[in-house]
Amino acid sequence: MTLKSACIQLVLLSLFTLSACVSSSNPDYGVKVVQEQAKIAQWSNLDGAQPITILGDLIQSDELDSLVEKGLAANPGLAQTLLTLKIRQAEYRKAQGARLPEVSAGHSALREEDQDDVYTGTATVSWELDLWRKLADSAKAASKDVQEQQMLYQSARDTLAAEIMTGWLELTSAKKNIAIEQKRIDVLEKTENYTRQRYRSGLGTLEDLDTARTATASARATLEKYKETLAQQQRALTRLLGDPNADITMSGDYTNVIVPLADFPEQTPQRRPDLKAAFLAIESADLNADVAYKDLLPSISLEASLEDIASTPGSALFTSPVWSLLGQLTAPLFQGGQLKAKAEIADLETAQAFEAYRETLYTAVQEIEDAMGLERSLKKQQVHIETALSKAEDSLVQYQKSYRQGFSDMLDLLTVQTQTFDLAIQLNNLTYDRLANRVTLGLALGIGAK
After folding, report:
1. Which of 280, 282, 291, 355 has the fewest CB atoms lying closer than 10 Å?
2. What are phi and psi of 370, to 5 degrees?
3. Residue 137 scores a pLDDT above 60
């Protein structure tokens, strides 16, 4: 073995020994993620729950499907998220390009008095050897960023679809509230007219007539409020659709919303795109930490250059070019601790990404459990309000007869009328809350848009 080869082997051995000493001390976050998922308690399914593959299966409506497709195609917020994804894809291609050789060429001309023109052509090829796979790790981290943004884009699509579905149900709820309030006004106007007739006949009092008029006017004010609420909800839905002039039609009654079947806790994180994105963020940060530590290691670069001088532009680089090859080994010696601090920061950012995943996971579990608990609670509330409304309607009929016969006063009748229609409004709102909550549950379970 020659002295030169022995020195080369010694240098390489020293480099690989150095690389073993300089590395990230991050734990295996993949194992830690599995351990966190294992902490999720088993939940029991709701009565009548059915397996659903996409959010559109929750509500069978061609009109709603069309609105969702329109929103996914035209919503400006979603379009911004898509553009962010395209930026990440371009950044990944940029990171991939850093692993390839760089080629540059130049051409110059020199003219001096009483001398022939001189033309110089140069071509240079430079390439950094990815000895520690630093460039490969950097490209892989960029790839993880692309995948993360893809999941965030999917999450944005799913959320938008759920918001459109909920907004569509909300329009039905507002329309039904208007119908109930209009029915209240009709009843109050009849009561007011009857009270006026009694007053003119000398059987009633002016106070009763004023009370009836007050109740009617108050109901008309409430009706105007409901109409404006409907208009605002329509404008909000057109904003989601990305078209302020969108024509929205809706049925006068609710469309049934299926109760989605909840998978086992360990399956839900595999479906939710926000959790997938959070895990990919950990992997990207971990790879960037490896890159930061590898910046402490020496780098080897090769550069080959070709230069030629000729008397004509076309002869440059084609007559008798001179080649030169340069191999360069560089290593950071002193930068005031900047590289080491950068590596430590990268480690902390990876730990931060893991904690963000834990937060996202626990939020997902809470969203599922809250939605399932709310479904059970709203079901019970709805039963009680339906019973109360039925009793109130019976009482209203009796009080109306009693008032016409002079056995009850105006205040008693108005109290029962108010209670009856307030219960009808409350039941309608509970129905909307329950149906909208099923959409929320589907989204929480990771059921996404088409």
Report:
1. 355
2. -65, -45
3. yes
